[in-house]
Amino acid sequence: MSDRHLSEISLSGNGIVHMFTVLIFLIFIFSVPTFGQMGSSSTYGMRRFLCLAILLGTFAVSVGCSIYHDVMVSYHVGALHAREDVLKIDLRAFRQGIKQYTSEKGVAPQSLDDLVRAGYVHQISPDPITGERNWRVILAPAEYPSKRPPGIVDVRSAAVGKSSDGSLYSEW
Q: Which of 139, 142, 143, 136 lies closest to 169, judged by CA?
């Protein structure tokens, strides 16, 4: 979920609270009686007190919603940045393992499991963006006439969508 999308969702709820605050304020303004309509002073004072209390309560809820919105957006953005950092680390480890495997064995690995079995990568962790072990492997073009099958030359995320910096996850 992008930062802009989170803000739009939260601001729509926050806008409703602000509109409610304005409505209560207008009720307060129009509830003040004119000189000819004044009833007992205790009823008039109680009505003004209740309107003011509702206005202040609504304002407090509005401020609380704004703070909650800021905290939640910060939390989601921070969590997204953390997952993106883990993705970069995982991709770097895979690429380093592929490079070492290829240089030491003279042939590119045929699968990510080859890297694990040979000890170049500790494990095949899930893609932190998709949450699944669905890495997209890039195979070398087949060389003819070669008896060796083409191997893995790169690994990329299978995640669809854009990262927080605007680039596509699939291009990382």
A: 136
